[in-house]
Specification:
4 copies of one chain form a homotetramer.
Chain A lengths: L11 E6 L16 H15 L13 E11 L8 E8 L8 E10 L5 E12 L10 H11 L3
Antiparallel strand pairs in A: 1-3, 2-5, 3-4, 4-5
Chain lengths: 147, 147, 147, 147
């Protein structure tokens, strides 16, 4: 979480409740399932901005996840309600990749549970990298306050 | 879904939105994930009646799932909102097992997606079967209208 | 598991090792994950008979799962090696559906863990039911000894 | 994957076959499931060195995952066989954390699919950080060639 935006506030929050099959025999959420929680945060974020369309996560262009990182700060347990804060880091004009940043907290106590970020590359239908479309960049930037 | 209660109405409904990792390469929700949806329905049903407690699905006694059955009526896809209707079939006094019945519909169209039921056995701390505790049977029966 | 074939032996076995994320906070495999184990058994069964093709579970025709049933006999835990026995119940000529039957045992102790069956419907590219193709029926029947 | 060990070879490999429920509606493995694949690699690595014990991933001490990172290089699809190479980066005496590094390749083509690393903290039964036990450090170091 070193990008310049690290100190910026989050303007979007969604929440979810931990399901039993997301926990493991250690009694806590299996760490890999946090990438599902980030996915939920990303999809809800895009829907809120009207940027998703039917079964396509982002309308207008495709993307692939190129990297994912999570720092686990404290455990989450069955039936915990988690708040997933999500934001898009500033995207420079013409760039092909964009990064979502996340902070997950335990809703009832505000305890920090995890920090994460995922980087995505915009692609065309032949899977070739393309510049992030301007309308996407502008819509998100207006919401986040960086464009 | 042959029990006498099959024609009875459902009094409890909860909903969830299909997540991307719950779908598979066939483009639809992997059928096994419906058992997760039934789990969500069961946990929400019990919480609504004040019958869960912290991380224990049912307060007062433990249970194990002894069987699960699902009939798949139509596919569910990424981002679909599904309504999970849940009810407990009548439990005779002294019985050791109880059965949850479920009906999953596509919220936007009311299309039937799946019917299912799971049977559970009440157990003590040594994993031995016990009669379903009376307070549980009475609370649920009052809600369902069969006790 | 009431079909006529219930007493018939299983001629195909595959095995898998329980992964940590397949367990839940109750310390055992989440019951819904058994449908993943049945899926593994089915795919391995079909591959063994040369009936799968690339990313298509069955070459030559598509299918949808119409029902799934599992009876849970004893728990499975992290790192347990499970043996999944699979067979196809006899398919009458012209029938549109076929049923896989499964028995899962704990490899080290031969303890019965679960019994299950899944019923599938053969479909064409327009999702309409079709008769199970004869070459599939004959190949499987020859292996199972019922055709 | 910037640690000094980045150029070091991997001495341990395990493999797995992609299961249908691990893929998503995009037709490829959901990126979050790679953390399950790393888990499988880690558990197999420790079992190979006799460092696991029953249902405990590491005998002798507990650990928590403090961070996980994956770079996705190319997609994996249903039924692909993946090779998971795993190694432990050098652990200095007295350190409380240790890092597993992973490289996942497509077995049939040797195509690079993903690189990842997970960092773990050794803890005592009260969840307090402890130094990585010497016998663990020495056994792993002898295998890896750094101790």
């Amino acid at each position: 979480m070193k990008p310049a935006a690290a100190e910026a506030p989050f303007h979007f929050h969604t929440e979810l409740r931990v399901r039993l099959p997301e926990t493991d025999a250690m009694g806590i959420v299996f760490h890999g399932n946090f990438l599902t929680y980030l996915e939920v945060g990303r999809v809800d974020y895009l829907r809120n901005l009207g940027l998703s369309e039917g079964i396509r996560p982002i309308k207008g262009f495709e993307n692939v996840v190129v990297s994912a990182h999570v720092d686990f700060k404290s455990p989450a347990r069955f039936d915990d309600v988690l708040t997933v804060a999500a934001r898009l880091a500033p995207i420079e004009k013409g760039k092909r990749s964009f990064t979502f940043e996340f902070r997950i907290t335990h809703k009832k106590t505000n305890r920090l549970v995890a920090l994460g970020h995922t980087t995505h590359c915009a692609i065309d239908s032949a899977y070739h990298p393309i510049s992030v479309p301007e309308d996407f960049r502008i819509t998100v930037g207006a919401f986040e306050g960086w464009a």
